[in-house]
């Protein structure tokens, strides 16, 4: 067992964990942060996306021990004073979810996309979300939501040359 100290959604935790324990399992099973979900366990779907020191990571793709000394933010830590995060609100406003399974990861990745580029083109949004899979929505409303969160004034229409609706 290895002792780790992490800050998660603003709270500090110190725990003994097996060195092989994945971060997503630590968050869900030890801390009860079940808003972060597992879709594939093979780093393909992005459902498990959280922020490590403010940058998105797939929490099934790293070990809990690698988060030692770091600051983790999950979907459960982004609302403030009972108010949804602007990206959460934009997903709500634009019906950017159906079953909702991908949504925690999509929201966390969208925040990271906007952090890195507050004024992304539609193509940049799609590229930024390409590591997050959604089996329900066709991505269109997800892109609209990110557009709204970005201010809604910065996106060119979808070009015919872009072809696929896949993010
Ligand atoms: S559960 Fe982590 S990428 Fe799918
Ligand atoms: S809303 Fe169902 S997988 Fe995205």
UniProtKB/TrEMBL annotation:
Gene3D superfamilies: 3.10.20.30, [2Fe-2S]-binding domain
GO molecular function term, any single one: metal ion binding
Stretches assigned to the 2Fe-2S ferredoxin-type domain: 2-78
Coiled-coil features, chain-numbered ranges: none
Keyword field: 2Fe-2S, Iron, Iron-sulfur, Metal-binding, Oxidoreductase
Statement: the UniProt record of this protein carries the keyword Oxidoreductase: yes
Pathway: Alkaloid degradation; nicotine degradation
InterPro entries: 2Fe-2S-bd, 2Fe-2S-bd_dom_sf, 2Fe-2S_ferredoxin-like_sf, 2Fe-2S_ferredoxin-type, Beta-grasp_dom_sf, Diverse_Oxidoreductases
PANTHER family named among the record's database cross-references: OXIDOREDUCTASE WITH IRON-SULFUR SUBUNIT
Protein name (Swiss-Prot/TrEMBL): Carbon-monoxide dehydrogenase small subunit
Organism, as annotated: Calidifontibacter indicus
Lineage: Bacteria, Bacillati, Actinomycetota, Actinomycetes, Micrococcales
């Amino acid at each position: 067992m290895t002792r780790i100290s992490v800050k998660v959604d603003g709270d500090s935790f110190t725990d003994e964990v097996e060195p092989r324990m994945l971060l997503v399992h630590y968050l869900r099973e030890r801390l009860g942060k079940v808003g972060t979900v597992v879709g594939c366990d093979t780093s393909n779907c992005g459902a498990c996306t959280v922020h490590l020191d403010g940058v998105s990571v797939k929490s099934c793709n790293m070990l809990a021990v690698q988060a030692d000394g770091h600051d983790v933010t999950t979907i459960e830590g982004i609302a403030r004073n009972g108010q949804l995060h602007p990206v959460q609100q934009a997903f709500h406003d634009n019906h950017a979810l159906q079953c909702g399974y991908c949504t925690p990861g999509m929201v966390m990745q969208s925040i990271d996309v906007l952090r890195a580029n507050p004024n992304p083109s539609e193509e940049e949004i799609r590229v930024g979300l390409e590591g997050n899979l959604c089996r329900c929505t066709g991505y269109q409303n997800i892109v609209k939501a990110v557009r709204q969160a970005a201010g809604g004034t910065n996106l060119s229409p979808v070009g015919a040359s872009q072809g696929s609706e896949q993010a």
